[in-house]
Amino acid sequence: MRKLAELIMRGRSQAILVVIVATMLPMMYWISAAAVGLVTLRRGPGDGTGLLAWSLLPAGAWGLVGDPTPALVILGTYVLAVILRRTVSWGYTLAVLIPVGVLSGIALEQMLHEVLGQLVEVVQELLQSQETVPGAQLGADWWYQLFAGGLSATHAAMMLACLVLARWWQSVLYNPGGFREEFHRLRLSPALALSIMAVLVVGPQFGLVMVHWLPLLVLPLVFAGLALVHGSVAKRKVGVTWLIMFYMAVVVLGPYLITMLVLLAVIDSLVDIRRRIPAKT
What we know:
Order of helices and strands: HHHHHHHHHHHHHH
Number of helices: 14
CATH topology of the largest domain: Arp2/3 complex 21 kDa subunit ARPC3
Mean pLDDT: 90
Largest sheet: none
Number of strands: 0
Oligomer: single chain
Number of domains: 2
């Protein structure tokens, strides 16, 4: 991956070649998004915009055949990279991730409305044949909101992952170890964390369909929770084995550990848990 980053930063022609080829290949658009993010972070929005335009040519072709994902992920990653470069703050960047994810979700619903409707019909037909299965009595609108919300959150997560890759590339090339330290210090502001929690609690009272927006809203909190875990493990110097065990537990326990990460991220925004953890000498 370092060699690819070096190729991207070698010159404008090489970067354009990488983003065009990567976007043209099925399921490889994430490389293009990360490349646009890297150039934007290192050289600024001006150069990033030029590379973005080239990447959107093949991404637009994918959109014409019914797949808007490459264009949305590349464009969203570019926006987040601009915010991160100008603010040098993951907190601000994660705050912007939410409206970017909302806009992306609205665009996806407009473009894939019929596909989502067909998916809901298939799921309902399968569940109606097995009435004892959980969720068999839920209506079509509930399933539509679930799938649409999951789609929005998935695309936002891909944008965030591409930005992380771009930042890691930048660190490897120009500031070894910088991304690791930056990630370990990541902590949401109390205003952002409490605002998200307030929407999660109060939102349903105003007709907000939480099954739609819950995955997107908790994404910044989950990311901050992961940063807290990594930062705490590094401060205590307990070794990578603990991280491996943690991610294995996430796979097994899923929603329970994610809920714990969300709560820890909110608490950390208020009391700075890492500062209170004694460093191992």
